Amino acid sequence: MCTAELSSNQILLFSHIITYGGGANASITEQIRDEIETMWNEPMVYLDVEGESRRVRFKITASFQPNLQPEEVFRNADPRNNFFRIEDYASGNISFVDGLGCNSGYFKTENLYVGSTTAAHEYGHTLGLDHPVDTDLRRKGTPGIMYPRGTLVDPQYQYNPDGRAGDSSNGGTIHPKYRKVQPGDILNLRLQRLRYLKGVAVLGAFTNRWHEAHG
């Protein structure tokens, strides 16, 4: 979830990442922030909004809040705030957010290694983006950020370049580290269709869900 704000020749998307839980700390929080901001700013996308060509730019801030209380999450009224619990254990063994266009979720520490692209992928869900329907990307080049685990890709983008395509037991599916934010991902946000009041719009909706630790 974020605010989209019109400024001189730009559309600025502001999100604030708030982490809590046993696996959260200041270092991993900054790593998440940097991954999201860096990856989502890589495409140089310009959109015509209100009669002016504007560059899309993401401004991501973050804070580790070990003493965060459930009431602070439930009562949150700031559309920039996104709350993520981080733990070593997660049911289903995956990181997730609470729907498309949301502002809360649960991250598994193991998924958050440097270059994993997990945080950037889940952030895309908070902005309303789903997994693509066609998950066979063979002969189609670099996978976009929203492709899920299990996607078929060219050998150089697999866990194991020598693995048979589709054989997950031998590394024959997408390695998430190869995902990139593509211009099409930015276009899919449909920023031109948002309702800007005094130059500000909201992308996403409040879920404000507090997560207890799993297990």
Q: What order do the helices and strands come in, and which of them pair?
A:
Elements: E1 2-7, E2 10-20, H1 26-41, E3 46-49, E4 52-64, H2 70-74, E5 81-87, E6 96-97, E7 104-108, H3 118-126, H4 183-187, E8 200-203
Parallel strand pairs: 2-4, 2-5, 5-7
Antiparallel strand pairs: 1-2, 1-8, 3-4, 6-7
Describe this structure as you would to a colleague.
The chain has 215 residues and is α/β, with parallel strands linked by helices. Helix content is 16%, strand content 24%. The chain folds into two domains: 2-129 and 189-203, no CATH class; 133-180, no CATH class. Strands 1, 2, 3, 4, 5, 6, 7 and 8 form an eight-stranded mixed sheet that branches. The protein is built from four helices and eight strands; from the N terminus they run ββαββαβββααβ. It has helices spanning 26-41, 70-74, 118-126, 183-187; strands at residues 2-7, 10-20, 46-49, 52-64, 81-87, 96-97, 104-108, 200-203.
Q: Based on the structure, what is the oligomeric state of the protein chains?
A: single chain
Largest sheet: 8 strands, mixed
Number of strands: 8
What's the number of domains?
2
**If you average the pLDDT, what whole number results?**
97
Task: Please supply descriptive tags for the structure shown above.
16% helix, 4 helices, eight-stranded mixed beta sheet, 2 domains
Short description:
This protein is α/β, with parallel strands linked by helices and 215 residues long. The chain is built from 4 helices and 8 strands.
